[in-house]
Specification:
Chain lengths: 431, 431, 431, 431
C-alpha cells in the first residue's frame, strides 16, 4: 500500500477538554520533554512480530509504519467552560500537581474555543462558554470556520478530530440519520435527534478530517456520516473508548469462552467521582453508556450458537457516582461461571484504575492511526481500530467484533498489510 | 490430511486415580447417561468458525474432525491406594454424593492396578498399593504388561495414557534424560533422576501410545522421550493442566500486554485443601509447581524487548495447604500495573474454583485430540495442544507460547488444517 | 427479677412463610431430630461471662435464664401463596433438598392461613391466598380470630408473633400512627398509611402477644403501637433483621471509630436473587430498605461531634436483583478511610452469605427472648434486643444504638440483670 | 486518682528511627505547624462518653485527663544507619516528598545516636552506626548514659521510650529472663537470649522510664522486666503495634463470635515491601511475628468452651515480601464461616493500608498514656493499653484480652476511673 509521508504539523482538535483531553495534552507535553513515558500507547511503545517465529523479528510499530511524530503535534479544542488547559487539568485532579506546575506555561497557552452545547442533552452540565446561533447548520458552519482558522494559525499540514466530551442522552438511530440529505435538512431544521456531538462530527467529516468518537454517543455511527466519510475520504472510528471494566470484560470473556466454560451471570458495578460520573448519574445519559457496555458479551459469547453455555446469562451493569474517588474509578465484577457437569464457580475482579490515564493513550493511538489511514487513502469505518472501542462500528452486513484478541489480530494484520508484510496465522506446522 | 477412522473402543489409562481422574470418569458416565453436560470441553461443546465472517459458518469441532465418541471409551489406571473409583471419588469430595450413588455400580467396577511409586518423590503420600521390582526397567516392563492385558481384556482398538497423579519433587533435566540409551540405562540402574511418572511415560511411549502429562513433572519433556515418541509414532503433550490461577494469568497478561500497559508486580496466592495441596505443602514438590507457574509471564511479556514495561516485574506465587476448602481451590491475585506517564493502578482477581472440575474436561480433550493426532500420523510434541498446559513443550529452537489466545489460534488453525479448511487471519480488508 | 416459668407449648406465628420462615421451621425440626445444630443462635449456643475474669465462669445463656425449650414449639402463620411449608421451602431453595425430603411429613403438615395482603404495597408480589374483608379493622379482627383458633387447636400456653414477610413500600410516620384512637379510626376507614404488616402488628399487640418485626416496615415503630404494647403488656422489638451487609457494617464501623480513623466514603452493593431481591427491585420498596440501611453509620460515627473524621462521609447503598444467585446473597463494600495526616487507605469486604441462614437464628432468638421478657413482666420496646435489628427502636428521647458491641453489652447486662448477677465493666483495676 | 501535672518538656526516645519512627516525628512537626491532623490518635482526636446517655456529654479525651501537649515534645533515638530523620523519612517513602521538604530543617536536626545492634538477631539488616562494647551490660550502661545526656541537653522534665525497630528472631522465655538477677547476670555474660531490644528495655526501665514495645520481640514481656518496672515505678506496655490485618481480625472476630457464627478457617496473607517486609522474609524473624499474629483468635473465640463453633478452626498467616508496594501494605483475608444448620459462607477482606500511617498514631497514644500513667503513680503492665497491641501483656493469672471492643471498654473505663467519673455498663434499664 502506498502511504503519503507524515510531514509538517498535525493538529489534534478535541471537543470536550476535560479530564481525558487535558491528560492527553499534558501527557504529550511531558513526554516531549522526556519527563514521562507514553505507557499504554501502542503507537509509541508497541512492538509487532514479523515473519516466522524463528526469525525473532519484533520491531516497534512506529518503525514499521510511518506514524506522525508526537513532537510535531499541536492541540486545539472546544469546551463549555472557558478554563485553559492548565486550569482544567488542575480541576480534573488526575495528574500530579507538581507535574502540572512544571508544564504550566505550555498548558495555559491552550484555551478552548466556545463550544456547541445544549443542556437538554446533558442535564448535569452547566457550561456557559457556548456558541449561540439560530440553527444547528449554522453551528456546524461556525465549527468549520473555527477549524479552518485553527489550521491556518497553527500552520498545520493535517488535522484529526477526536471527541473527548461527555456522554449525551440516549438517542436511537432514526430517519434523520439515514442520508446526507436528511441529516443536512435536520441540521437546518434543528432536529432534536441531532445532539451537539453530531454537529462536530458533521463539521469534521464534511471537511475530510479523520474523526474518532470516544463516547457512546451516536455521532459517526449513522449511515449519513458513513456515506459522507466515503465521499470526503475521511476515515472514522467509533464509538466509546474501551477502558476500565469493559476492557477487562473483553479480555476475560474470550478466555472463558475459548475454554467452553458456561456463564450464568455477570454483575458489573463501578464507582467513580469525576464529571463523567456526575453526568452518568442522570438515567438518560446512563442509558447511552449502558447500551454501549451491555453489548459486548452477547457478541463474544454467541448465546444462540452456544445455548447450554450462555443462553441464560444474566448481565447487569451499574455505574455509581461516588465523589470520594474523583477520577480514580473502581470497577468490581462478579462472574458466575459453571464447568464440567454444570458445577458452579465464581470469579471476582476488582480494578482500581484511573479513567483518564487509561483513556489518554487510546486517544493518541486513534488519532495517529486515523492520520495514517488518511494518508494511506483509507476512508469510512476503520474496523481495525475496534481494538480501542467499547461499541465498535463494523461494515454493513457483519457483526462488530468485541473480543480484544481478535481485534488485536485485525489491527496487527492491518499494519502488516499496510507495510506489505506477511499475515500471521500461528499455524506453525513447519517448525 | 488423511486421518484414520475412529472405530471400536478407546482405552484411557490413568496413572493416579484421585480427584481429577475420578471426576473425569464419573463425569463421562454421567454424560453418557445424559445426566449432565461436558461443560468445559471443546471436543464436546466447542465450535469453530470456518470461511469468511459473512458466511456465518461455525460448526461443532466434533463435526469438523473425526473424534472418538465418548460413549465408546473404557477407563483403566493405577493408584497407590486400592480404593475403587467410587470410593476414591467419594473421598475426593468433588462431586455431589447423590450423583456418585447413582453411578455407583459402574464406578465400583473400575479398580486401580498396583502403582509404580516411590515415597521419596512425594513425601506426604503414603500409598501401599504398589508394585515391587528390582529395577525401574522391570517396573516399566510390568506397566507394559498391564497395558497389554488391559487392551486385550477390554477389547480396545486404541489406547491413550494421561498422567493425573501427584506433583513429584523438583528434578532438572540431566544427562540421563538426553538419549534413549541413557534413559534406558538409567532405568536399568535405578537412576535417581527417573521418578515414577517417567517410568509410566516410557512404558506408554515405548508402546506407541499417545501420552499427556497433567502435572509439572518432567515426564515427556526430555529429549529421550521426544526422540522415542518420534520413533514409535506417539504424539505427546505436556506439561501441567492449565486450570485456575495460571489459566486466568494467561488470559489476563496478553490483555494487558496488547494494550502496552506496564506491570510492576504480580502476586498470586492459592488456598486449597485437597491431596494436591497436601503434596505441594512439601517445599521440594512445591518447587516443581512453582517453576511451572512462574514461567508464563516471562514468555508472554518479553521483558527484554519491552524494558520500560516489564523489566522490573516482581512475580511471586504461593500455594497454601488449607484443609477447610478441600478441592474448592481459591486463587487470589494482585497485579500492580501502570499506565500513561507511569501512573499506578491495581487489579485484584479472586477465583473461587474447583480444581478437578476445571481439570477433567482438559483431560478429556487432551486424550481425544491426541488420539486424533495419532490417527492423523502426527507424532512427537503436539504444540497445538499447548492451549491446555501450564508449561507447554515447544519444538526445539522456539520458545513455548503461553498466551492462551495464540494457543487457541494455533489449535483452531491446526484443526482447520487437518480438515483441509482455510486458515483465518482476521484481516478482513475485503468486507 | 421475678420470671414466670416457661411451661407448656409456645406457639410461633409467622406472617410471611417464605425463605426465612421456612428455614426457621425446617431448622427447628432438624435440630429437634439432632440432624443439625442451631449455629448462629445465642439462645441455643451462646455463653455469657459471670463474675470476675479470674473466676472463669461462662455458662450457656440458656442455663442462666429460663428460656422456652425448642422441642416444645409449634408453628403457624399466614402467606399469600397456599404452598405448605415443604413446598415453600423447596421453592426458596435455601436448604439441601435431601434434608427437606427427610423432614417432609412434618413440613407438609404446616399450611399457611390466608394472608392479609394488598398488592399496592408490594407490586412485584402476586399472591392469591388472601383474605377479603371490607375494612382493615375487619381484617385485624379476622387475624385475631385466626390467632385464638390456632392457640386453642394447638393447645399453646403462650404465643409470639414475628414478621418474616416482604418489605413494603416506603411510608413515613403520620398522624394516623400517633394514638391508639387514630390508628383504630384508620383501620376502620382503610387509611392508606396502614399497610398489611401494621394490621398484623395491631392484631398481635392488641391481644398482648409479643411481636417482632424482621422487615423495615413501620409496623410496631409508631407511637400508637408502643402505647398499646404498654397497655396490653406486650414486649415488642423492631425493626429489620440485621444480617449480611449491615451486620458487617455495624461490626466494622465501631472498630474504625474506636481508633479515630476517618472515613470519606462507604459504598455498599448487594446482589441477590430471591423473592426479597425481586420485591426490592421496585424503587418504592427499596426506599424502605435503603432508609433502614443508611441510618446506621450516622449514629455510630457521630459526624457532628467528629467533624474532621466523618462530616464528609459519602454513604451509598445499592441492592441489585440478580437471579443467578437465589438466596445466596453477596454484599460488596468499599470503604475509603484516612489516617495519620489524612493519608487515604481502602478496605474492601466481600461477604458471600446466605440470607435466610443468617436470619433464621435471629428470628428464633427474638422469639425466645421476647417470650422471656413477657414472662418477666417487661413490656413495650425491648431495646436490649437491638442487637438483632438493623434499625432498632429506642425509648423516646434517646438515639438508637447501632454499634453491635454496645448492643451486645446491653443484651448481656440485661440478661445478668434478669438473673440477678453483677454487671460487667471490664475495668479490672483489681487484678 | 491523683495525677501530677504534665509540665515542661516530654522527651520521646525511639530505638529504630525507620518508617514508623520518622512518620511519627514528621507528623508531629506537621501537626504542630497546623499543616495536617493527627487522625488515628485517640489522645488528640478521640471523645469519651460520660454519665447517662440522656446527658449527651462526650468531651475530648484530652479534656478529661491531663495529657502532655504535643507542642512540648522533643524527639531523640538510635538507629543502625546514621541518616538523619529527613533522610530516613525520605527513603522510607511513606510521606509526601513535598511535605518532607517543607519540614526539612526540623527533621535534619534530629540525628540518631549509635545503636545497640547485633546482626545475628536480624540477618537482613546491615547497619554500621553501631556501638561497640565488650558486654551487653556495658551496652546497657552506654544507653543509660545516652539517655541522661539527652534529657539534660534537651531540658526534659520526663522521658518515655518506645521501640519502633525491627522484629528480631524468635526467642522463647527462658531462665535468664526469670529474675532481675538472672537478667543482669545474662547482660554481663552476653547471654544469647538477650537480644538488642531487651538491652534498651532494661536501660529504660532501670531508669524508671515508661517503656512501650511496638514489635513482637520479648522485650518487656518477661518476669525480670515486669519486676524491675514495679521496683522503679515504670509503667510498661507491650507488645507489637496492632495495625493492619490483626486490627481487622480483632474487630471482626468478636463480631462473628457475638453472633455465635462458626468459623472453619481463617487464611490471612500480606504483601509489603518495606524494610519490615524484608526483615520478615527471614523465617526466624517471621516466626516471632507469626506467633504474635496467630494468638489472637484462640483467645477471642475460646474453642474449648465453644467446640461446635471453633474447635476445628484452621488459622494460617502468611507475610510476603513484595517490593513493588513499599510501605503500602495489603492484607487479604479469607474467612470460612458457617451458620444455621452448619451452612457455609465466606468473607473476604482486602485492606489496602499504609503500615506506618496506621502505626504512628498508636505510638503517640502509647507514649502519652504511659506518661499519664507514670504521673498517676501506675507502674508495671498497663493492661488498659492492650487496645494498641497485637499480643498484649496481661497480669499474671489472667488471659490477655484481644477483642478490641473489650480493650476499648477497659481503656475508656480506666480513663473514667482516673478522672473520677462513673463507669459505664450500657444496661440502661432506667430509660
Amino acid at each position: 500500500m502506498k502511504v503519503e509521508k507524515a510531514k509538517g504539523k498535525l493538529g489534534i482538535l478535541i471537543p470536550g477538554m476535560g479530564a481525558v483531553g487535558t491528560t492527553l495534552i499534558a501527557g504529550i507535553c511531558a513526554i516531549n520533554r522526556e519527563m514521562a513515558l507514553p505507557i499504554g500507547s501502542l503507537t509509541q511503545m508497541g512492538r509487532i512480530r514479523l515473519g516466522k517465529r524463528t526469525e525473532d523479528n519484533k520491531p516497534l510499530i512506529k518503525d514499521l509504519v510511518d506514524l506522525h511524530p508526537v513532537k510535531d503535534i499541536v492541540f486545539g479544542g472546544w469546551d463549555v467552560f472557558e478554563d485553559n488547559v492548565f486550569e482544567s487539568a488542575f480541576h480534573a485532579d488526575v495528574l500530579d500537581k507538581k507535574l502540572l506546575e512544571d508544564l504550566r506555561p505550555e498548558l495555559e497557552a491552550i484555551r478552548p474555543m466556545k463550544a456547541v452545547f445544549d443542556k437538554s442533552y446533558a442535564k448535569r452540565l452547566n457550561g456557559t462558554h457556548v456558541k449561540e446561533r439560530n440553527t444547528k447548520m449554522e453551528l456546524a458552519e461556525a465549527l468549520m470556520q473555527d477549524i479552518e482558522t485553527f489550521k491556518e494559525q497553527n500552520n498545520c499540514d493535517r488535522l484529526v478530530m477526536i471527541w473527548c466530551g461527555s456522554t449525551e442522552i440516549y438517542i436511537e438511530e432514526g430517519p434523520v440519520h439515514e442520508t446526507i440529505e436528511s441529516l443536512e435538512d435536520g441540521l437546518r431544521n434543528n432536529h432534536k435527534d441531532i445532539p451537539p456531538s453530531m454537529i462536530y462530527t458533521y463539521a469534521a467529516v464534511k471537511l475530510g478530517i479523520p474523526y474518532a468518537n470516544g463516547a457512546p454517543n451516536l455521532s459517526c455511527d449513522i449511515p449519513a456520516i458513513i456515506e459522507l466519510a466515503k465521499q470526503t475520504g475521511s476515515p472514522i472510528a467509533g464509538k466509546d473508548f474501551k477502558t476500565g471494566q469493559t476492557l477487562m470484560k473483553t479480555i476475560l470473556a474470550p478466555g472463558l469462552k475459548c475454554r467452553a466454560l458456561g456463564i450464568s451471570g455477570w454483575f458489573s458495578t463501578n464507582i467513580l467521582g469525576n464529571r463523567d460520573g456526575e453526568v452518568l448519574d442522570d438515567p438518560d445519559n446512563f442509558k447511552t453508556k449502558e447500551v454501549s457496555k451491555l453489548g459486548v458479551l452477547e457478541e463474544i459469547l454467541e448465546p444462540s450458537l452456544n445455548q447450554e453455555l450462555y443462553k441464560d446469562l444474566y448481565h447487569k451493569v451499574r455505574i455509581n457516582y461516588y465523589p470520594p474517588r474523583g477520577d480514580n474509578k473502581e470497577g468490581w465484577d462478579n462472574i458466575d461461571i459453571f464447568g464440567w457437569l454444570n458445577y458452579p464457580m465464581q470469579i471476582k475482579i476488582d480494578f482500581l484504575c484511573k479513567d483518564s490515564i487509561l483513556a489518554a493513550p487510546l486517544a493518541l493511538d486513534l488519532v495517529l492511526f486515523l492520520d495514517l489511514a488518511k494518508r494511506a487513502g483509507m476512508s469510512g469505518i476503520q474496523e481495525w481500530l475496534s481494538f480501542y472501542l467499547k461499541s465498535p462500528q463494523a461494515p454493513q452486513g457483519v457483526t462488530p467484533i468485541n473480543d480484544i484478541f481478535k481485534q488485536q489480530i485485525k489491527l496487527e494484520n492491518t499494519l502488516r498489510y499496510i507495510a506489505g508484510e506477511d499475515l500471521i496465522t500461528h499455524l506453525g506446522q513447519d517448525y
